[in-house]
Amino acid sequence: MKSVLVTAAFSNLGQAICRLFHENDYFVYGTTTRKDVSSPVVDRIIVIDLCREKLSPDGIDELDVLVNNAGIFTESHIENLSDEDYGRVFDLNVKAAFFTIQALLPALKKKNGSVVNISSMNAVHPGFGSTSHYDATKGAVSAMTRSLASETGLRVNAVQPGLIARPALEGSSLEEHWKSHSVMKRMMEPDEIARLVLFLAQSSGIYGQCVTIDNGYTLC
Predict the structure, then answer these.
(1) Based on the structure, what is the number of domains in the chain?
(2) Local structure of 55: helix, strand or coil
(3) pLDDT tens digits, residue range 148-197?
(4) 134 an active-site residue?
């Protein structure tokens, strides 16, 4: 059976990714910071705070796919951003992704595996303002993706999503802004992004590519 490890498996996007891989007969490992969660689409739950700990590969001898989905989004103008908040975003979005790949590299190499990093359209676009620190982390993720594909010889690629729909955003000013600035007047659905993740994970010949999926926001 093929296997996949998804970080932040219980986030909105994480569950969509896990569900799709589960439907395609993968054994799904999923990380979370919470001890009180369960899901029919996650076969083994790994409780870990990737901001504070490095993932241990114990019990994962072979791995077909790693999806680095864990990340944090915050907004703050440069004049107000503290060292602590800056470091927290970089620790999870960049450092945790890098060292998770490092930890699982032997298992991935045994299967000639694939890595899909979840970056953001903010890697190539200034986003919504007051996000320069976040944008910098996603720029780093996309740059790291290209470099690691060359360095490791594995299919390391990235998805750069636009704004993902969730209940908290329904009717918000951010949703209205998104609709008025994108070609297709709606936010991205988690399942749409999950399908691109699965495609990149299963593809051949695609190395170091960062694919933007944003309903045309960056075109407008």
Answers:
(1) 1
(2) coil
(3) 999 999 999 999 999 999 888 888 888 888 888 899 999 999 999 999 99
(4) yes
Residues 69, 9: Cα–Cα separation, whole Å: 8
User: What pTM does this model have?
Assistant: 0.96
Q: Which residues contact 129 (CB under 8 A, 6 or more apart)?
A: 75
| In-domain check, residue 220 | no
Nearest Cα to Cα of residue 10 among 198, 190, 131, 137 = 190
> Which is the catalytic residue, given 26, 29, 86, 134?
134
Q: What CATH number should be reported for the domain holding residue 152?
A: 3.40.50.720
Report yes or no on 40 lying in a domain. yes
**What is the domain extent for residue 76?**
2-215
* Interstrand relation of 44-47 and 155-161 (parallel, antiparallel or unpaired): unpaired
Structure tokens at 70: 């864990």
Question: What distances in angstroms separate CA 120 from CA 4, 64, 116, 124, one per listed residue?
Answer: 21, 23, 12, 8
190 in a domain, yes or no? Answer: yes
d(CA 32, CA 37): 8
- Asked if residue 205 is part of any domain, the answer here is yes
